[in-house]
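The instructor's notes for this session suggest beginning with a concrete chain rather than abstract definitions. Hand out the sequence below and ask the class to guess, before any prediction is shown, which regions might be ordered.
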Amino acid sequence: MPIAEPRSYGGAAVTAQDLGSSGEFVAAIATLATLIYLAVQTRQARRSAWAQAPQWISDGYRSWISAPREDPELGHLVIRALQNWSDLSPIDQFKAHCWWADKIVHLDAVLTLHEQGVIDDERKVAWVDDRLALLITPGGQQWWSDTKFLYGE
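After discussion, reveal the predicted structure:
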């Protein structure tokens, strides 16, 4: 097939190279628009996380604190566990461990959110103090001694 001669539009000849350059320009504009769109979406997602974090923390705390209230047996178990962990049966230790572990995992999430700037210092300190109050009891010290390897030191 013979190669077509460049056509002239308005006095200027358009070559394949001109079309390629135009295509590159359009692709660059599309890439820039995509990057701007992604930046806006990321910013909105971060704002949403900031707005939801306090509610998530409150929900977690409410769930954790309501468990012994709704299950008096668990409440009594927690009190016994705080006093002397080693006096509990293995099944009771497991139940108390699940309840306490949830609190420690929640604290880890709070600390991560603090590192990301989502949670302020005051809220972080309140959560750390609350967890330390658990761990300074005789049973809390025994429990932590047995399980701290799971959470890092």
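Then share the key points. The helical segments are 16-70, 72-83, 90-115, 121-135, 138-147. The chain has five helices and two strands.
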